[in-house]
Structure formats: structure tokens, C-alpha cells
Amino acid sequence: MSAIIEVSGVSKSFGGVKANTDISMSVEKGGITGLIGPNGSGKTTLFNSIVGFHPIDSGSITFEGKEISRMLVPEIARLGLLRTFQQTRIYGAMNCVENMLISLPHRKLSIWDAFRKNSAEDRERAERLLEFVGLYQKRFLQASSLSFGQQKLLEFAMALMNEPTVLLLDEPTAGINPTLINGLIDRLKLANTEFGITLFIIEHNMRVIMNMADTIYCLAHGQMLASGKPEDIQDDQRVIDAYLGAH
Ligand code: ADP
Ligand code: MG
After folding, report:
1. How far, in Å, CA of 224 to CA of 26, rounded?
2. Rounded distance, CA 155 to CA 236, Å?
3. Where in the chain is the domain with CATH 3.40.50.300?
4. What pLDDT, on a 0 to 100 scale, did the predictor assign at position 89?
5. Residue 103's closest CA among 128, 79, 121, 77?
6. d(C-alpha 94, C-alpha 18), whole Å
7. Which end of the chain is less crowded, N or C, counting CB atoms within 10 A of the terminal residue's CB?
8. 1-80+164-247 belongs to which CATH class?
9. Three-state DSSP class for 101?
């Protein structure tokens, strides 16, 4: 395997807060990489830097060998690097299929074009992906009527609609009930194995990330504390201390 995302010496501060300091890490093509760390350790900041949500102070970020650290979100999304959010971003007043179609503006000109120009093909793909995440029966229901967990599944399907090469997921299982968590884990793994999507996942639930990731990075106080295979990370005293120290 080779690195599809390479982060080298990245730092990012907000005023006096050093959210990320000299972070280096890589995401292997075709794999599932995990990012853990206590609250406030800089995980979301790293995601935001990678997808172009804010400029970094120093360092380099490459995607498929190309420097992306000065690019903006839409430009990076068009390259095939997408993210989901800790808090879902769906349109509650629209039904699931409409949300799926609206998630395509990366390829379209505006929201209205997305409605006008969406082809039968797009609709069919939207419905197939909703089926993939288990929301087919609910496809014509308002997104606001879905449970939080189902909304996360919808958001995941919306990301798949854009055919990402790499998908960054920020705490996908947070706030979801255990039954849905298992379903979501299965879907994520299938997206990886069947669709070949490289996954980079921030996850608070150790059981979940240990079960999914082939490599795990652990942040603490904005710095890279440890990295390795799940079984090594699990037994790493620095990681254990960082988590225990945070609670
Ligand atoms: P995590 O996702 O690991 O919980 P974050 O990356 O969200 O951590 O936050 C890391 C640190 O950076 C925290 O101290 C947080 O308050 C700060 N931070 C994050 N984003 C911003 C922002 N937009 N403005 C100011 N401070 C921020
Ligand atoms: Mg976060």
C-alpha cells in the first residue's frame, strides 16, 4: 500500500491556542485509518486542515502526491477528498432522495441546477445508495423525521453520492444507539472493501476503531502522541495515560 494523503509538519493555531503542532502522518490508499485522542486534542482541526476548511500555519499536505494545503474546500472535494461532520449537515425539510441530489453541487452549478438537471441516473443511484445504508423505506420521508443515527447514515450516503476516493468521517458513531452503530460499521467496512473508498475516521469509541482501522494515530494536546496497529495502540501506555488523564 502507498500513502494517498501525506501530512508533514502541519501546525495550526487559533489565536493563542496551538490546536495542531508539527503533525506528520499518512493515510494509506485503500485502507481504514483511525484518529483518536481526548476531547480538544486537535482531531477535528486536522480534518479541517486536510479538506481545506481553513489555511494551515505551516507544513505540507498532499493528496495523491499533489500539494493541497493552499486549496479551498470545493477544489479539494472535486479531487475526490470529502468529509462528514461531527454534527450532521442535512436539509431537514427535504426528503432523503432530495438530500442525496442536493449533495451533488460539487458537480453542478447551483442548488436549483441540482434539481433541474438531476438525471434519472442520479435518482436511481441516490435510491441505490439509500438502500445500501438501510434507508430505502424512508427515502421519501423528511430528513428531520429521521433519528439522529439515521441522519448520520443519510449523511454518509450523501457523501458516497459524490463518489469520493477518500472519505474523512468525524465521529460517525457519536450519539448513535448500539444497534445502528453495528449497522454503520458494517456499511463503512463495505464502502471500503466493495467501493474501494479509503477511510480516515475520527472515533471516540475505542471498541469501534479497534475493530475497523488497520492503522491508528493518537493525538494529545495537539501533538502526535503515538501511531501503530490497533493492538499496539491499545497497549501503549502513553495512549492509556492520555485517555485516563482526560477523564
Ligand atoms: P477535537 O476534535 O480533538 O476535540 P479540536 O480540533 O476541535 O479538538 O480542537 C482543538 C483545540 O483547538 C481546542 O482547544 C479548540 O477549542 C480549539 N479550536 C478548534 N477550532 C477552533 C476555532 N475555529 N477557533 C478557535 N479555537 C478553535
Ligand atoms: Mg472534534
Report:
1. 12
2. 33
3. 1-80+164-247
4. 75
5. 77
6. 39
7. C
8. alpha beta
9. helix
Cα–chain center distance at 231 = 23
CB 44 near ligand 1, within 6 Å: yes
**pLDDT digits 0-9 by tens, 133-188:** 999 999 999 999 999 889 989 999 999 998 999 999 999 888 888 888 888 999 99
The ligand that comes nearest to the alpha carbon of residue 21 is: 1
Choosing from 14, 217, 218 the residue with most ligand 1 atoms within 8 A of its CB, the one to mutate for a pocket test is 14
Angle, vertex CA 107, rays to CA 106 and CA 109, nearest 5: 85
Q: Whole-angstrom Cα distance, residue 87 to residue 110? A: 23
Beta strands in 29-75 (DSSP E): 32-36, 58-63, 66-67
CA distances from 75 to 71, 99, 227 (A): 6, 21, 30
Residue 84 has a pLDDT of 82
Q: Is 90 exceeded by the pLDDT of residue 55? A: yes
Please tell me if the CB atom of residue 40 comes closer than 6 angstroms to any atom of ligand 1: yes
